[in-house]
Design brief:
Helix content: 40-55%
CATH class of the domain at 6-165: Alpha Beta
Number of helices: 17
Strand content: 15-25%
Shape: globular
Low-confidence stretches: none
CATH superfamily of the domain at 6-165: P-loop containing nucleotide triphosphate hydrolases
Strand order of the largest sheet: 8-10-9-11-12-13-14-16-15
Largest sheet: 9 strands, mixed
Length: about 450
């Protein structure tokens, strides 16, 4: 079974021959290698590119292990592309496995201490050289404990084009799930969108696979990359984040929660560093709080969402299945995957309660930034009663502006608008159609 990830293939196609290194990033096991070496390559062949026009190196394979030496990798590619009248696609998988090699022809005594890294040839050096050759179009994947994808993008800056690959969207999942939409949604909320999960029919094996990914891949990657003494704090923090997806939090609160799990509290700075680690590894994503009326960001407090619900659920041994939180997380992931900039909204209102004026904060789940405009989105299981509807839309009705407002409900209801201009739509059509683009017009 092949999962067609056409959205990413199209992104790659639009970046062909743009003079930059194409860098495919994303959480490990999300299908980056398959995207590049199979889906993208096959599409190019359909467009007339010949098999002989590809130079492929997979540094995680034993047959290509010698090319982890950047000099040997460079020599191989140059030798394979000697015909400068032909155009070649260079596909390098797991580029982070390339190690640095000391330059023998440099007098070390002439190199200042702060420039010692210049004594070595790295894959950055060879990619920069290859990128400058007009008959080569270069693509790489890479993300693990030795060299996270974020580092690759940072080092290339404006010379690299990033294509970020996410776990399967619900639309991609549904295309191969062979289920009714409602049944597929239940599976997706439980097991997420890691590609190998949907290909595994046995539920016990699904759970085992997801739990193994967290313990044996992601946690170990971070421990190795940052030379952590152990994974106790990291594991406690990951558990705390998994338990609180969609909840407002900060390093102090997370330190206390992790401390409860460990028996002692880590410092604020330690937790802050570890939060950066898990975001860099694409395990979680953070959303800042935006003061809708004050038009400014709140410091310190924000929300974290799991990159994949299946991984989050596996981490908690498939307990804590609060549907409202899972649905909110799923909506956030879909908005980010579509390329939108998303914040968490706060509406501050002064109300008279028991005869006293009181300043209160009311949350809008998502503020989607679209150019100079915004769209407010609230996630709600239902608005079946007048009281529930009033509760879920209160913050939306008090923003003091005329930006579009949407309530995403559980289920399959088509888009409709109430008498106050607030729109409602079921989560299934929201995920399968670009409702936001339709609303923006």
């Amino acid at each position: 079974m092949i999962i067609d990830r056409n959205e990413y293939v199209e992104q790659l196609l639009t970046k062909c021959w743009n003079g930059k290194v194409k860098i495919v990033t994303g959480i490990r096991r999300s299908g980056k290698s398959f995207l590049l070496s199979t889906l993208f390559k096959n599409r190019l062949i359909e467009k007339g590119v010949q098999e002989r026009d590809f130079v492929e190196v997979a540094l995680d394979r034993k047959t290509d292990i010698k090319y982890r030496n950047p000099n040997l990798l460079y020599d191989y590619i140059i030798e394979s592309t000697r015909d400068t009248d032909r155009k070649f696609y260079v596909l390098i998988d797991e580029i982070q496995l390339s190690y640095k090699v000391k330059n023998e022809n440099v007098d070390e005594s002439l190199v200042p201490e702060e420039d010692r890294e210049l004594l070595y040839t790295t894959f950055y050096d060879i990619l920069n050289d290859l990128m400058a050759r007009p008959n080569l179009d270069v693509y790489v994947t890479g993300s693990n404990s030795k060299m996270l994808s974020k580092d690759i993008v940072t080092n290339f800056r404006d010379r690299g084009s990033e294509i970020k690959v996410y776990p399967l969207s619900f639309a991609e999942y549904l295309s191969v799930a062979q289920m009714e939409k409602a049944d597929a949604l239940e599976e997706y909320l439980m097991y997420g969108g890691m590609p190998l999960t949907i290909l595994e029919p046995d539920e016990k094996e699904k759970r085992k696979y997801l739990q193994g990914l967290f313990s044996n891949v992601y946690i170990k990657d971070i421990v190795e990359r940052y030379n952590l003494k152990d994974d106790n704090i990291l594991s406690a923090l990951v558990d705390a984040l998994s338990s609180s997806v969609g909840s407002l939090t900060n390093p102090n609160k997370l330190a206390n929660t992790a401390g409860t799990l460990m028996g002692k509290s880590p410092s604020h700075n330690t937790v802050k560093n570890y939060l950066d680690y898990v975001e860099d590894a694409f395990l979680f994503q953070s959303a800042k709080r935006w003061d809708v009326k004050g038009r400014k960001y709140f410091d310190k407090i924000q929300k974290y969402y799991a990159m994949d619900l299946g991984l989050r659920n596996a981490r908690l041994n498939f307990r804590q299945q609060e549907r409202s939180h899972l649905m909110e997380n799923m909506i956030y992931n879909d908005l980010i995957r579509r390329g939108y900039s998303v914040d968490v909204g706060i509406v501050e209102l002064t109300r008279v309660i028991d005869g006293k004026r009181k300043l209160s904060q009311y949350e809008i789940d998502f503020v989607v930034n679209v150019g100079n405009s915004k769209v407010y989105i609230q996630s709600a299981l239902n608005v079946d009663t007048p009281e529930k509807k009033a509760q879920e839309t209160f913050s939306l009705r008090n923003t003091g502006d005329f930006f579009r407002k949407i309530v995403v409900l559980d289920g399959s209801r088509k888009l409709w608008t109430d008498e106050d201009g607030v729109m409602y739509v079921g989560v299934i059509p929201f995920l399968l159609e670009d409702v936001l683009a339709e609303v923006i017009g």
